[in-house]
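Q: My labmate handed me this sequence with no annotations at all. I'd like to see what the chain might look like in three dimensions before we decide whether it's worth expressing. Could you predict it?
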Amino acid sequence: MSTPRPRRFAAALFLVPLAFAPAPPAPLATSRAASLPIKAALPNPILFVTQVPIPGDFTTVGSVFGNHRSEVESAGRGGDLYILYPNGTLRNLTREAGFGNEGFQGSGSIAVREPSVHWSGTKALFSMVVGATTERYEYIDTWWQIYEVTGLGPSDHAVITRVPRQPADANNVSPLYAPDGRVLFTSDRPRGGDRHLERDLHILTAIGEGTPLTQRALAQRVGVALGLANLCVKRLARKGYIKVVEFQGKPAARKRLRYLLTPKGLAEKTRLSYEHAVYALHLYRRTRQTLRESLGSLRERGLARVALYGTGDAAELAYLTLKEYGLEPVAVYAPAPNGDFLGFKVLPLERLDADGLDGVVVATFERPESHVLDLERRGVPRAKCVTLRRMIMGRSA
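A: Here is what I predict for the chain of 397 residues:
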């Protein structure tokens, strides 16, 4: 949940001088400009941003590495884009253009970074993330996006527009103008637009272990069809990540292939491993915080009979969080029960007794609506369902 943030006590970052020579400024309304005492005259206006300080220094906006994350815990809401003129006049450009909030930082709150001025000095690019959670247990997707601001002259009015044709579901940062007018920037959008690169990581990891693998064995390990495994291996070979070595047996024997990880493939595996680790860390941290809040409220009300619905990594994380509060799940259920999980026999959903439970943790990192619908059909009220992600109203209807 967002909390009130200071707005002018944050450090000013990325001071960028503008190249134009301004005319003497006309009188400006106090709502859009302020005058600051300047000990030494500035030769040019300065464009800069303010950012809310973040205590942590791992994958936050001020970190050396992984500073592209857009979640509230990584990029605090409350900063703005400013311009300071040689005579001391200060304009808040984002507020002037209708972005950002004073005081409590709610759904329309923003964070800004990295302004870059056009060669003409009449416009600038910067990266901005818009939006934040407004209530407990809520999670929304937000992304750093590239915006352009015009109206930088002392008597102008700021206009901010989103740069078109950039990846909408990716974090785009560090923008700048190329001499030919194009906009260059850095993005975490995967190459080719594929947001599911775990398969490549699994294949490269399996091949990197050095154990001879047939395509069939590789497909079984990764959990994909044999035909898809064949396509993935060919694609990775074309990119130079793996080398396919052919061993000839007897003339009548089938050809046997061996896959070797190339230095380029090792570098790609390292990159994917890092990205996956950063993603998993944020996912686990956010999920654990949500569970702590939910389970803490159950404990305060004296409710202790909690069951897990689901198995896997999410269920393990839920189990550890339960143990932190001195709670032990009374049962583990799954849509397709198979064997044991953490010492519990996994039971089919048909065995669930809704009246005997105070809560059911829907243990999945995916959208929970369909699982909650299954529980409602078994008589579990939605109020008893504890989800790792906030429910979107109407999705389970």
